[in-house]
Amino acid sequence: MNRKARQELIGIGALVIGLFLGLTLLRLSLTGSWGEQLGSRLWRLLGAGSLLLPVLGIGWALAAFERLGSLSPARAAALGAGLVALLPYGIGTVTGARFPAEYAAWSHTQKLVGLVPALLAHGVHQVVGTAGGVLVGLFALSALGLLTVGWHPLVVLRTRETGIGKRETAKPPKQKGAVKDAPPVQPDTTILVSRFPKDRKQKSPPAPKPVMVPEGVLIPPIHLLTAAPVDDGDGGLVQIEQMGQKLIETLQTFRVEGSIAGRTVGPVVTQYEVAPGPGVKVGRIASLADDLALAMRAPSLRIVAPIPGKAAVGIEVPNPMPRMVHVRELIEGAEYHRATRVLPVALGKNLEGDPVVADLARMPHLLIAGVTGSGKSVCINTIITSLIYTHPPDKLKLLMIDPKMVELSMYAALPHLGLPVVTNHHKAASVLKWAGWEMERRYRLLHANHARNVVDFNRKVEEKKPLKGPRETLATQTGIQKELPLDGEYTDGVLPYIVLIVDELADLMLTVQGEIETPLATLAQKARAIGIHLVLATQRPSVNVITGLIKANFPCRIAFRVSAKVDSRTILDQNGAETLLGNGDMLFLPPGKSELLRVQGAFISTDETERLMEWYKVHAAKAAAATGTSIDEQVAALEEAEKAGEDGSGKGEEGTPGERDTLFRQAAEVCIQNQLGSTSLLQRRMSIGYGRAARIVDQLELAGILGPANGSKPRDVLVGLEELDEICGSD
Q1: Does the global pTM surpass 0.90?
Q2: CA angle 403, 406, 410 (to 5 degrees)
Q3: How many helical (H) and strand (E) elements, i.e. helices and strands, does the chain have?
Q4: At the topology level of CATH, where does 648-728 sit?
Q5: What is the distance between the alpha carbons of residues 141 and 133, in angstroms, rounded to a whole number?
Q6: ω before 306 within 30° of 0 (cis)?
Q7: Structural domain boundaries in the chain
Q8: Parallel, antiparallel, or unpaired: how do β-strands 366-369 and 313-318 relate?
């Protein structure tokens, strides 16, 4: 007979005994003479407490059949027995604790106390009096409730007090002034001491110091973000302890011996460290994930087998009372303001409840994946908010590509935008090409001034050292740039960081994959040193979207809940993301590490983002002065240059050099060297599209270099290299 069967059998016995005792107290003839004597003696010994004996039996039975939630049968029995003793004790203490020597002389009120509670009440009264007896009773009641169900009378007072604090912090101060006028918010500093010392739970962080923003720097005040509510409970620690017992019992049901070596309580999940018994293989525990989830009534479980650096298996179970992580509490924390981070990104809190703040400059690029509703878009909003709270518009530029047209449209008023939010697929490809051009420009600039990276270059700019600036023009056509000598003086100021955010990579890969895959790979490989960083997000982490060329250059990744194990392996190279809970629950692969970090993502609401945008609208004049050079103009110039390269074929009958394609002479040389001319030849040798190659062939025919079309055969070449100089002139 297993443990559960024994527990239920004992519960049935307790129910039968409780019902029988209830009948004996009624002194019915159904219980016989022995039952009548038993009921009389119970009333004489326990008084009114004997009336709770049937309730004790029923409660024990319900707990044995798991009908009282997480309350175990032993705790239910202890609670009932304590109430059986405390009820008559309280009556005896309040009535004065004075009882005649003979039981027959007791009044009806005194008989409610019973002999045993009367003896206890009288003894306490002789030592500490009536007031002390009442206090002893309250203490006993509090201890009983705390040890069994995790409740005591002082919880009511604490809840009322913290409720007032909630109402006070729910109303942010109405202020529309500058940042320097924003009053510092005094956070709640109440420290709740855990009753379970074996929990490796987070310590209460010190009160965050208000961050002083220099006057004139365009950074929004912190009160625009919603403050985290005051934690007015114990987070269900009693239920968490009972869940650990249930976990061990379930493992024993499957004949897997083990013990709880420790636990880590996080905002949303608790990791139990299960030490396997002798001879128990780790794989046996890992294979029971679904069975454990069924027994724990959890939507899913994640098993870390084993925990790196520990002789235990980690079983992560959802908390009965999850806590939300707000982005404000992370931005106010000291971890966010560490001076070593260049582009701090507040991601959330880990299993220990410690803030997780990453540096985008060290990643240096981030790949995010997760199904709809898993928290992917909220994570992007958190990343954007984290960046704008540390860098003004003149130090940071954001390029947002949103093929879905709804997720990032709320940031239209953000002055950090280098150009309006891009929703057109072909415009997105142009933006990526511009980023590649900007990367090459910055590299030439750093090379000319002997700077290793953008930080070194900006330091020289701030120190006002003489710097060389290249005199160059924008690309005249795709892939071709006209460079002038680096003999100018650099006067453009510091190079801002550029963060390019793509909210749905899958849509772009379906339409313009050929145009964006190479620029993405090039940027991911080379753009780290010059301050350009990529954040790519997709809800379909398939190999068709996250290709090997892209994946190899994104070592830092975030996976929210995905639909299948294959998707988890695509984004993380291992399973685990399919067991996440959603709503911000993520697995984070930090840069330079192979162990996954489970994080509860920080939450920012749409109302908070709208308040930020309204603040920027109020300060629109200052924002316009800080934005600097418009990237939109440069992208438009690049598009015009590409269009001129694609559509600049000569339409006149004379085919003058001014009307010819810029690749006209190069194409003519290719045809003369191969002694044939065709569209496919130019496509292969010059890496251009069909439309442009066909237009160049028409121009070559008009110039007399190629003969007329001859069906499917290549065209004849009519001139040599000597005549080509006369036809092309100085072009």
Answers
A1: no
A2: 120
A3: 24, 15
A4: Arc Repressor Mutant, subunit A (1.10.10)
A5: 12
A6: yes
A7: 3-152, 237-318, 327-627, 648-728
A8: unpaired
CB-based contact 525:553 (threshold 8 Å): yes
User: How far apart, in whole angstroms, are the C-alpha atoms of residue 74 and residue 284?
Assistant: 30
Is a pLDDT exceeding 60 seen at residue 517? Answer: yes
327-627 placed in CATH 3.40.50.300 = yes
Closest C-alpha to 539, from 515, 571, 513, 512: 571
**Angle, vertex CA 134, rays to CA 129 and CA 136, nearest 5:** 90
Q: How far apart are CA 147 and CA 144, in angstroms?
A: 5
SS3 350: coil
Q: Is 561 helix (H, G, I), strand (E, B) or coil?
A: coil
For the chain, percent helix, then strand, then coil, each to nearest 5?
Answer: 45, 15, 40
pLDDT in tens, 136-148: 888 888 887 777 7
**Is residue 110's pLDDT more than 50?**
yes
23: alpha, beta or left? (left if phi > 0; alpha if psi -120 to 50):
alpha
Structure tokens at 85: 């003793």
At residue 231, the pLDDT reads 66
At 395 the three-state DSSP class reads coil
Three-state helix/strand/coil letters over 499-541? EEEECCHHHHHHHHHHHHHHHHHHHHHHCCCCCEEEEEEECCC
Say if CB 414 and CB 398 are below 8 A apart: yes
Residue of 206, 196, 306 whose CA lies nearest to 245: 196
- The CA-CA-CA angle for residues 238, 244, 250, to 5°, reads 135
Q: Is the pLDDT at 426 greater than 70, yes or no?
A: yes
- pLDDT of 618 strictly over 70: yes
Instruction: Determine contact, residues 271/314, Cβ cutoff 8 Å.
Output: yes
- Which residue reads 């993520």 in tokens? 586
Does the pLDDT value for residue 501 go beyond 90?
A: yes
Q: List alpha helices for 337-471, DSSP H.
A: 376-388, 425-448, 454-462
Would you state the structure tokens that stand for residue 232, as one six-digit string? 């007015």
Instruction: Output the average pLDDT for the chain.
Output: 79
Mean pLDDT of 655-666: 69
Does position 374 have pLDDT exceeding 60, yes or no? Answer: yes
Q: Is the pLDDT of residue 166 over 50?
A: no
Phi, psi at 135, each rounded to 5° = -65, -40
What is 237-318's CATH number, 3.30.980.40, 3.40.190.10, 3.40.50.720, 3.90.1640.10?
A: 3.30.980.40
Q: Which of 353, 264, 349, 336 is nearest to 307 (CA)?
A: 264
> Each residue of 568-598: pLDDT tens digit?
998 988 888 998 988 899 999 988 788 899 9
Q: What are phi and psi of 399, to 5 degrees?
A: -115, 115
Averaged pLDDT for residues 26-51 = 76
Q: Please count the other Cβ atoms lying within 10 Å of the Cβ belonging to residue 491.
A: 8
